[in-house]
């Protein structure tokens, strides 16, 4: 008898499994058939259905499942509400989000001293007391940040100085020039102590690794070179870009090197493997500049009429900025208050809320009297260490300092209207 009972229980279990596999979908009656069945019910049957639901009967055991149960099943399968995939609902969420208000900016000082375009600019990363600029006049000048007075002129290059980098750990300043040279300046002696030879053409950008004794340089020859600071030897050459490189930046963690190029790509480099592990190909034109957020592990890059922010280290797209009519963008800078500045080749200054991509202020720079209107272009920019002052280097040979208007409020300075499109959503 025990064997018979065991066989019957096995057959019953097998039958239930087969029925579950083949006929489970029949437990959900289609909506058009359910309408027919409901129409044939008597008044008493309809009353019993209503009474059963009000008494708390578990509908999951009933033959017919409601639409809510079907929706819950979808949410369990996909891990989220399937309605969230609706484009209309995403648009509603974007409209309900409000960008943070930022005070507008105004010009407070114009500094003259260079006799050529001001091509690069860096602020002292240690004491925030001075900043350095490089120019077409082949010199690097050191300026006092508080007063705007010239402190020092470093002359040594024979062609345009395209970029400068200031070390946090050493009293060194590095300059890159179109004369194919990277020079190391000792700021205690105010003289050149090392030259780095190896590039086949003009060097457009240089940066210092935050934790290693390395510098990265790149330029017109389309390769990124990593140099040992003390021995002056090129320890690695990163090959991949198809056109001149416009900007290179080093990070203490992966990606340790990021570069942008006129081939419309941004590359995140794996220094250990010596190759790029991620290529950002979303831009359609030359990427002239990118900037890293000072407190969030993300970056923003720009080409003509297109600014986008990316999540690091994987390089996932975060935000499309409202930049359709910005024109050619030469420089980007971000401060700790989530203010993004974009400087245009037509002299336009654009200020954005970094998180939402909303452009809240735009204005034209004021060219120096006596300069041509065609020289009204912003070539470089940087926030000071506090993020309260913005410094720009321009094609009219001047350096301009900007700050936020004091005592401004959302009522007195509301800024440009917030009119988002779904393409600008931050994912």
From TrEMBL:
Subcellular localization, as worded in the UniProt entry: Nucleus
Segment forming the signal sequence: none
Disordered: annotated segments: 408-427
Primary subcellular site in the record, as a coarse category: nucleus
Stretches forming WD repeats: 111-153, 154-195, 196-237, 238-279
Subunit comment: Associated with the spliceosome.
Record protein name field: Pre-mRNA-splicing factor PRP46
Record organism: Zygosaccharomyces rouxii
